């Protein structure tokens, strides 16, 4: 079974799960259409590599689908965007 990523707006985070098991989350604070990502955490005992990348990619794809922008205060999200130029347009204040 592939892990799934969902937005949990009541908890202000995106979650990656394998069934009912929480594997990780990317926390955010929302200001209108801007998502300020503050912390990302993945269970080191999940036994799967790439979960953080899967989580961040899905979260950013969802922000893009909503027409939103991103402020990556979290070093993991900031580094991930830095390695994936096709997501740089999501940065708040960037030219589209």
UniProtKB/TrEMBL annotation:
Superkingdom of the source species: Bacteria
InterPro entries reported for this sequence: Acyl_CoA_acyltransferase, Gcn5-rel_NAT, GNAT_YJDJ
Pfam families the UniProt entry points to: Acetyltransf_CG
N-acetyltransferase domain: residues covered: 6-92
Name of the protein this chain belongs to: N-acetyltransferase domain-containing protein
């Amino acid at each position: 079974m592939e892990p799934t990523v969902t937005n949990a707006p009541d908890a202000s985070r995106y979650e990656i799960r394998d069934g009912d098991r929480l594997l990780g989350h990317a926390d955010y604070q929302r200001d209108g259409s801007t998502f300020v990502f503050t912390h990302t955490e993945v269970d080191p005992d999940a036994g799967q590599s790439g979960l953080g990348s899967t989580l961040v990619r899905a979260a950013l794809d969802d922000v893009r689908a909503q027409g939103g922008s991103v402020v990556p205060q979290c070093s993991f999200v900031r580094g991930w965007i830095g390695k994936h130029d096709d997501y740089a347009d999501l940065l708040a204040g960037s030219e589209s």
